[in-house]
Design brief:
The protein is α/β, with parallel strands linked by helices and 352 residues long. It has 13 helices and 13 strands.
């Protein structure tokens, strides 16, 4: 008869912590002993003994009394593939071609891309809600799609590998990639003004307007002022982020001082604006120049093509894959890479 072995509480706790580390629940540092003891329902002496076993294996690296132990990522390279969790901006992003290609290339490189259980919009861009979700969804690394400034600030201080794909990461200690749209913005504003446009409006998402203007939105204000135009709430209106809220915003704009040009931040909003103009304003669709600061394949089916910004997303996809490779090798990669965007004019008439 085989002998039945009873494992000590210390050995069981060490096994549990080892499995959680291999699952990438923690990737850089382990929580303190008090927190682990409370979570696992064991005494602090049992936790310390289990941690000492992992220290002896070389999986943990002590950093001195009172400081959390660091995980030796080199010991994890033989573990199952790197798990990367992607926090989407909204549900429809799962069908975006950039996300599809990113997933394909990561899987080809031996990594696993999974989606977070909630999106940025479902979490209301609230760092506290993001923190609660992240704490319950283990991953080796996180990719944050179009993250707001407060959310990215939280990730930057969370002690985990994070890459901002688009969003507002400027100046934060985290990796990022996405388009540099400022030259394209200056180009389109100059062309609009050369054709006589003076009532130029930008429609931006709420997190780009509040609690303060994003880099792109502030550059829009600065460029208007530099060209002798007033810049205020009319040019960057506040609106409730829903179809009804967008329609109310457009009603207000066209009732008093109709804009002659509208720069729309993303393709989803551009479809809503075109629908409004076609449905509510008849010929206004031809009288107002619409420019999308994004790209969507349907633009090429418009006649004339919709003016928009264009950039090469493959550059950012390759950057993300390299970053995940570096994370899997234990490298601290915080490089921020921008990809130049250009303005594709289409038809850009002057105001009637």
């Amino acid at each position: 008869m085989a002998e039945f072995q009873v494992r000590t509480a210390t050995a069981q706790v060490a096994d549990h912590l080892r499995r959680e580390i291999e699952r990438r629940r923690w990737t850089q540092e382990l929580p303190g002993g008090t927190r682990l003891a409370k979570e696992l329902g064991v005494g602090k002496s049992t936790i310390e003994a289990a941690l000492a076993l992992l220290d002896a294996e070389g999986l943990l690296l002590p950093q001195g009394t009172g400081r959390p132990r660091r995980i030796d990522s080199a010991k994890l390279r033989g573990c199952p593939g790197t798990v990367v969790r992607l926090l989407l901006y909204e549900r429809d992003d799962v069908f975006d071609q950039v996300i599809f290609e990113l997933r394909r290339q990561l899987e080809s490189a031996g990594h696993e891309l999974v989606f977070a259980s909630k999106t940025m919009r479902e979490l209301h861009h609230d760092p506290r809600r993001v923190a609660r979700m992240v704490g319950g969804e283990p991953a080796n690394a996180w990719i944050v799609l179009a993250g707001s400034r407060p959310v990215l600030e939280w990730f930057a201080g969370a002690g985990m590998p994070v890459l901002a794909l688009f969003g507002q990461p400027q100046g934060l200690p985290l990796a990022s990639t996405g388009p540099d749209k400022l030259p394209a913005l200056r180009d389109v504003l100059q062309r609009l003004m050369d054709r006589g446009h003076r009532r130029i409006v930008m429609l931006a998402r709420e997190e780009r307007r509040k609690p303060q203007h994003g880099l792109f939105e502030q550059a829009f204000f600065d460029e208007l002022k530099a060209r002798g135009l007033a810049a205020g709430a009319y040019n960057l209106p506040d609106w409730e982020e829903s179809a009804a809220g967008l329609n109310r915003c457009l009603d207000g704009l066209f009732q008093v001082t109709p804009p002659t040009a509208i720069i729309i931040q993303d393709s989803m909003l551009s479809f809503g604006v075109k629908s409004y103009l076609a449905r509510q304003r008849g010929l206004a669709l031809r009288q107002v120049v619409l420019v999308c600061a994004d790209y969507h394949p349907t633009f090429e089916w418009c006649d004339p093509p919709m003016p928009h910004f264009s950039w090469d997303p493959q550059v950012s996809v390759r950057r993300v894959v390299r970053w995940v490779d570096h994370v899997s090798q234990g490298k601290n990669d915080l490089r921020q890479q921008l990809v130049a965007a250009k303005f594709i004019e289409g038809e850009l008439p002057g105001p009637e």
